[in-house]
Design a protein that fits this description.
Length: 523
């Protein structure tokens, strides 16, 4: 690797101290430690000068005036700005480095998309505006829908769901509506054990019993076990393709035919569509409903950077039940069908959202499609797959590949290479933070022990992947050589380490309780 400039890494004696060195300020290098805004604030301080209220004016609040202090932190403008800039520097972002979270598709968000999304005609409109004044926005929704239908080879699309999981809910509700229209009430949904957690959660939320299908030794759906579970009580199978092991389900057509033969529907989790767009049309494989994560495949920001969007493409059989609203084109213009009575020859299941879905994400996704073109989208998928296979090939001699390659857009390792080293998948992932990388997805999928799932996406260059690989190779070699001190307790360079994430999620502290000074408390 070609590096320029003077060395910045600690050397010799320095190096040994670097990890346990504590600063007086709590800062680390140029990253500042930062308390809560409430802890910084002092009563009575304010960023602006406000005039004293005029005592002569009679209050019109009818005795509802606040009696106590409002309790907001008293801080000046520079203090507020610094507070948030300091916090932002503790964060990891796709604009900072490779974000290899498998199954999450953290790809670069092209700035062109951002520019287009900020055009006033898209950014400054209101969902309750008369339709005649937002014809351009409706046309954009119609065009986006057309491309999603073209790419998937499916005849209909519901744009409004606001995330992948929400799209799953939309798909299963559509399936339920279609079954009810046939007068059938089926109770089970089949879900492979490698599925994303949202799949069984969605099926359960829709009132179905989740029936798990085991995986084969090569990481795919066990077709024999699947067929053994099939009967006329099965509403649908929810299958991800490529699956969450990063593998293409070879038997997908056989699976589609079998579920259709018992009158059930094929729900495909399309979150991994970024691996196959332009190469495979899920409609040709027999899929009845599939959500597409615009925030993954079509690069709209996510993970704290923006809202998701999960349109669902639908087969002929399910199209009549698609939720409201939807866009129709008529003699030179566009209209939204918003009411059940207005839907001529269909039986829409109602609404998934208050308005029309994530307009800003529609704009970004269409900008991504149009700037890539059909050939560019196909190349994005091919490059994503190439990058993942390159990483797999570079690491297979030092880490353990779970299923023999080639893989699709993500490569799966397990913890067998750490056997006997005293280092776990968690320790290994935390040591990556010290290397300046966001860890890969760990402990998912559940079908292998101590999973490490890496998805580079097409937007990484060979140079950035080579640097990433060099760090992982070095860590793997050190773990196996027994250098456990580098791993146990890592990260050493992050502002915080080993947080109790489960505790934080289960028992969140959402209210700041001021520490009362002892003198005051004694009174
Ligand atoms: C990301 C993902 C989902 C869920 O999508 P959200 O937008 O996070 O709700 C579902 N399935 C798979 C395979 C995914 O990767």
């Amino acid at each position: 690797m070609n590096r320029h400039g003077r060395p910045t890494a600690p050397t010799g004696a320095n190096k040994a101290q670097a990890t346990d060195f504590k600063t007086i300020s709590g800062h680390r290098g140029l990253d500042q430690d930062e308390p809560l805004l409430f802890e910084i604030g002092r009563p009575g301080h304010c960023g602006v000068d406000l005039p004293e209220p005029d005592a002569k004016i009679e209050s019109r609040l009818g005795g509802l005036e606040r009696g106590e202090d409002i309790g907001l932190p008293g801080v000046s403008e520079p203090e507020v700005v610094r507070h948030f800039v300091r916090l932002s520097r503790m964060n990891y972002a796709i604009d900072l480095g490779i974000y290899p979270l498998g199954s999450c598709t953290m790809k670069h968000n092209p700035r062109l998309n951002e520019k287009v999304a900020r055009l006033p005609g898209f950014a400054d409109i209101h969902p309750l505006q008369p339709q005649s004044t937002v014809q351009g926005a409706l046309e954009l929704m119609d065009q986006l829908g057309t491309w999603l239908k073209t790419l998937t080879g499916m005849p209909d699309v519901a744009l409004s769901p606001k995330a992948g999981a929400h799209g799953e809910l939309c798909g299963l509700m559509t399936i339920r509506a279609a079954l009810e229209a046939r007068g059938e009430k089926r109770t089970r949904v089949l879900v492979p054990e490698s599925a994303h957690g949202t799949n069984p959660a969605t099926a359960a939320a829709c009132g179905y019993i989740v029936d798990e299908i085991p995986a084969t030794a090569d990481g795919r759906v066990d077709v024999a076990a699947f067929k053994a579970k099939l009967d006329t009580d099965v509403a649908a199978i929810m299958l991800t393709n490529p699956n969450t092991c990063g593998l293409f389900e070879r038997d997908i057509i056989e699976i589609a035919d079998a579920i259709h033969a018992v009158g059930g529907y094929f729900y495909c989790d399309g979150a991994n569509f970024n691996a196959i767009m332009g190469r495979v049309r899920p409609g040709d494989l027999g899929v009845d409903a599939m959500h597409i994560n615009l925030h993954k495949t079509f690069s709209t920001p996510h993970g704290g950077g923006g809202p998701g969007s999960g349109p669902v493409t639908l087969s002929e059989a399910l199209a009549p039940y698609a939720p409201l609203p939807y866009v129709v084109s008529h003699g030179g213009g566009f209209a939204l069908v918003e009411n059940q009575g207005d839907a001529a020859d269909t039986a829409p299941l109602g609404r998934m959202v208050a308005f029309h879905g994530q307009m800003g994400m529609y704009v970004r996704a269409l900008a991504f499609m149009m700037s890539h073109g059909a050939d560019g989208l196909r190349q994005a998928a091919e490059d994503a797959v190439l990058n993942a296979n390159y990483i797999m090939a570079c690491l297979e001699d030092v880490m353990t590949v779970s299923f023999a390659g080639p893989c699709m857009h993500e490569c799966l390792f397990d913890d067998r290479f750490l056997n006997g080293s005293g280092v776990t998948t968690l320790d290994f992932a935390k040591a990556m933070i010290d290397e300046g990388y966001h860890p890969m997805t760990m402990y998912f999928p559940l079908v292998v022990h101590g999973a490490m799932l890496i998805e580079p996406t097409e937007s990484e260059s060979k140079e950035s992947i080579d640097q990433f690989v060099a760090s992982l190779r070095s860590l793997a070699t050190r773990a196996k050589a027994g250098e456990t001190e580098r791993f146990i307790g890592a990260p050493f360079f992050a502002p915080r380490a080993r947080l109790d994430e489960t505790g934080a999620a289960r028992k969140p502290i959402l209210r700041y309780t001021p520490v009362v000074p002892t003198a005051q408390a004694a009174e």
